[in-house]
Structures are given as structure tokens and as C-alpha cells.
């Protein structure tokens, strides 16, 4: 790459030092220009011709799905203007960060992203049971808030943030009070790589070969009245029609505002056939996998379902 090459922009949940930033750097290194955003929704909204790439957290191995992400994946623009083009996983080791000199018994508020607070529930209830938890847009934003001047509502000398220990090396005046405070030692978060096109060429290949994947959104078609639900295909019928291997399913209320009408975010994996190795599958031509998935989506539509391709990788 020449020195003055224009790098594609990648939107991520900031400020610097978030897990999303680390996961993005692990995969993209210096091949992109990083553009920090305040919330996961801002990251999603930043995906455009100006910033054709983004990374958003999708699921944690102990606390489960990132609801904000799933709610973005059910929006009509996903699968139309924004696509999932890859995944990457990061080991998450949380620490308790404080203003230099603050002791555990002084902490009245614990600030962090909802996911990090959820991943450290046992630590908080065992070690700082009287502390209130305060949701912040990201773990790094929580650490940064410790450096603000005291207000009527919050004294930073009575607060702690849950974040990565890397953050202590980024912002001056903070120190790590406890390390490895997540409830499960093996704690991983999986991220989706977003792009403006299904085949964005600037995504570096994953380090380990894995079978081809796809993400689709399924639902029974938009019904005029809740009563129609009885004739609509069930999730079992939708999956049978799809005839592809589903490896993950998340359910969210649909945007039709019909009570209990849901959308299903279904992750698919290409089956290994005789003679295939995971490596050869990964190298298989993407168009063939896209055709297989599209044929499955057509079968879902034939039985009265709605089926949208949200991404392939
Ligand atoms: O706040 C951050 O550091 C993030 O990158 C977000 C996020 C998440 O939403 O899951 C990412 C990984 C961890 O699970 C905790 C928080």
C-alpha cells in the first residue's frame, strides 16, 4: 500500500479502547481508517458510501445476544443497503477501573455497557453488593466518565468502570483495581462485520478457515390482523422450507406492530459434502453459496413466508 493511499473508513463503537475497537483492529489492522461512534446504533447508521465498513457486537458467550444489534438487523435497510460480510470473535477479560487511589469499599456506582455489567453480575453482587449499576454506551465511555469533574449526581471518586485493562493505558489518572472479574473465565464476544455491499473486497480473510455462513431474516408475511396468524406458516414450516442448516436463531418482535408477530434472525452454515474439508469450503466460490441460500429463501416465500438475505461470508 502506498503511503498516501486512501483507506476505506470503518465505523466502530468508541471511544478508543472498547472491545469493538480491539476486535476491529485484530482483523483490519492498519488497512482501514477508524471512525469512532457513540452508540451501536450510531455505528450502524454510519455505514454509507463514506464509511463502507463497520463492526458491531452480536453475541456474548455468557450473557447472550446483543439486543440493540438484533433490533438493527430487523430494520428494512438491513439486507438492502447494509449487509453482514463477516464475523470475528474476541476473548473478553474485564477489569474494575477506578480513579487512582480509590478503594473497593468507596465504590457506590459501577458504570459500564449493559453487556459488561451482565457478564460481571456475580462479581458485583459478591464484592460490591451495595453499589448501583449505571448503563453507559460503551465500556470505554464508562472509563472516560470517571475523569469528569464531580457533579451533584455523581462523584467519580465513588465510581468504578468495567472495561478492558487496555483502557487504563489510554486515559491518564485511572488504575486497575481488580482483573478478570467476568463471571465465566472463558468469556467471548462475537462481532459482525457490516458493509454496504454483499461482496465488499476490503475485508481481510479470517485467520482460521471456517465453513461458509449466511444470515437471513424470516417471518410469516405481514398480516393485516392478529387473527390471520393462525393461517401463517410457523417457524418450523419456514425452516423446513428453507432446507439449509441453521446454527443460530434469534427472535425479535417484527416492525409490523402486530402483537406477537416476530422476525427470526437465522444464521446458516454450508454443509460439508463428501471430500470437502472446512478449508476447501471456505475457499469455495461465494456465488455458489449465495445461490444455494437464495434458492432456500425462494422456497420460504412459496409457502407464504417473508425471507430476506442479510449477509454471506
Ligand atoms: O463497550 C464495549 O467495549 C463494546 O465494545 C461493546 C460490548 C458489547 O456490546 O457486547 C462488546 C464486548 C463486550 O461483550 C462488552 C461490550
Q: In words, what does this structure look like?
A:
Keywords: Amino-acid biosynthesis, Aromatic amino acid biosynthesis, Lyase, Phenylalanine biosynthesis. It comes from Piloderma croceum (strain F 1598). Pfam families: PDT. By secondary structure, the protein is of the alpha/beta class. The protein is built from ten helices and 15 strands. The mean pLDDT is 92. The strands form three sheets. Strands 1, 2, 3, 4, 5 and 11 form a six-stranded mixed sheet that branches. Strands 8-7-9-6-10 form a five-stranded mixed sheet. It has a four-stranded antiparallel sheet with strand order 13-14-12-15, with helices on both faces. It has three domains: 9-91 and 187-195, 3-Layer(aba) Sandwich (D-Maltodextrin-Binding Protein, domain 2), CATH 3.40.190; 95-179, 3-Layer(aba) Sandwich (D-Maltodextrin-Binding Protein, domain 2), CATH 3.40.190; 213-312, ACT domain (Alpha-Beta Plaits). The chain is 26% helix and 30% strand. The structure holds prephenic acid.
Amino acid at each position: 500500500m502506498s503511503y498516501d493511499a486512501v483507506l476505506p473508513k470503518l465505523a466502530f463503537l468508541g471511544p478508543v479502547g472498547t472491545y469493538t475497537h480491539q476486535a476491529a483492529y485484530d482483523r483490519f489492522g492498519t488497512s482501514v481508517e477508524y471512525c469512532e461512534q457513540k452508540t451501536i446504533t450510531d455505528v450502524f447508521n454510519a455505514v454509507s458510501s463514506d464509511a463502507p465498513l463497520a463492526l458491531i457486537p452480536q453475541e456474548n458467550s455468557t450473557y447472550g445476544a446483543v439486543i440493540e444489534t438484533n433490533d438493527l438487523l430487523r430494520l428494512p435497510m438491513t439486507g438492502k443497503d447494509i449487509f453482514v460480510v463477516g464475523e470475528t470473535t474476541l476473548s473478553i477479560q474485564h477489569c474494575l477501573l477506578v480513579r487512582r487511589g480509590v478503594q473497593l469499599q468507596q465504590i457506590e456506582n459501577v458504570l459500564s455497557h449493559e453487556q459488561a455489567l451482565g457478564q460481571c453480575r456475580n462479581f458485583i453482587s459478591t464484592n460490591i453488593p451495595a453499589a448501583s449499576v449505571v448503563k453507559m454506551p460503551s465500556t470505554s465511555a464508562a472509563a472516560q466518565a470517571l475523569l469528569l469533574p464531580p457533579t451533584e449526581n455523581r462523584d467519580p471518586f465513588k465510581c468504578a468502570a468495567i472495561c478492558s485493562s487496555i483502557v487504563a493505558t489510554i486515559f491518564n489518572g485511572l488504575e486497575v483495581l481488580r482483573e478478570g472479574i467476568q463471571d465465566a473465565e472463558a468469556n467471548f464476544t462475537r462481532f459482525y462485520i457490516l458493509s454496504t455491499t454483499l461482496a465488499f473486497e476490503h475485508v481481510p480473510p479470517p485467520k482460521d478457515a471456517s465453513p461458509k455462513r449466511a444470515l437471513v431474516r424470516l417471518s410469516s408475511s405481514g398480516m393485516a390482523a392478529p387473527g390471520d396468524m393462525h393461517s401463517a406458516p410457523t417457524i418450523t414450516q419456514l425452516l423446513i422450507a428453507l432446507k439449509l442448516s441453521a446454527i443460530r436463531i434469534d427472535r425479535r418482535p417484527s416492525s409490523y406492530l402486530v402483537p406477537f408477530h416476530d422476525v427470526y434472525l437465522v444464521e446458516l452454515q454450508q454443509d460439508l459434502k463428501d471430500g470437502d474439508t472446512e478449508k476447501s469450503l471456505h475457499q469455495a466460490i461465494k456465488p455458489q453459496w449465495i445461490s444455494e441460500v437464495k434458492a432456500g429463501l425462494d422456497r420460504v416465500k412459496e409457502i407464504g413466508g417473508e425471507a430476506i438475505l442479510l449477509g454471506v461470508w
